[in-house]
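User: Structure tokens for this complex, please. No commentary.
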Amino acid sequence: MVSELSSFHVQGRAAVSSPRRLLQPPLCDFSASSGALRTALPYQRSVVAAARNVQARDALLNCRLCAHHCGVNRIVGELGLCHAGVSARVFSAQLEVADELELIPTFAIAFSGCDLRCAFCITGAQSWNARAGESFDAIQLAAKVRRALARGARSVMILGGEPTIHLPSVIELVSALPDEARLVWKTNAHGSGEARALLDGLFDVWLADCKFGNDECAQRLARVPNYTAVVRENLLWARAYSELIVRHLLMPGHVECCWRPIAAWLASELPGVKVSLRGGFWPGWQTKRHAELHRMVSADEVQYAARLAEECELNLVK
Amino acid sequence: MSELLIMPDGKIYAHNLTPEMAAVLSELNPEDEAIQQRVVTHVGPETKKLLPANWNEAKPNL
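Assistant:
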């Protein structure tokens, strides 16, 4: 028996010629050259997060947190493509060990709802439904985080669904978390520049999905346009301003069209970046709508993907 | 809560894997490197200090 682990409960942005901070938050003077922004902050992270609460809440008045740029007023009940309202909900908060070895055990907090519609989403019922799960309570979650850290958790992971669409709640949560905790931002990398400005310096690690190697597959399987440009922009930004692990979930029949171009781009534009190649594709949720997704990834596909990674000299992590 | 998918050939796919479920899976297949790595890293250094010297990391008492 072979155990193949996959923890892609969230899914996982081309090219800013030079990644830069789009909005300078108050109270902060970040050092752009630092790979560990938090340690360079003149204020504690929780204080910085608290200072952004109002700004984050105001972003819902004309929501452009993700790259769909819906522009809806979520405060008055308008819904964008993600269908998220003002109040966030959480469908899982527990200690987990399936993620990258350097991060586990991690206390993973999963927000309901997502801005993508991936047919193969492993948590589709919660990720496609922003009303799934329980009401978000920052104080209660922070208490759970403290217990998990005392139990031996190495990191705290914020994920979804997609947490970007709930940035006001995320920032409220960060303001309540211990400053010494190692915070991981698990994202589909489809956030906007506005979202990046709000996130800047708050997370130690970006664990970012790079799901599709071309816009056609992204549109067909996740109903998202202009995918590669958005994801690449976010990856470049994340690499410049935090630790970054790029995660790709191998999909059956998509090694050549998706993994090969991703591997080539990473080798060219983000040399040395940590890459997590995941083999635990699971044909559930809406995969029945796509013929090639009816099966698991084959051993041949896994071997071929690994060979491509080796040819591109990627820095694979487990 | 973890979710498992057990294939006819015996492969087990897991997501939202908790330390407790990792310990169970490691019992099922002690030879599997991926699951063993996840069992032995589930306890942090501070907690390890509190454990007996002969504590078997591969089979934690959860």
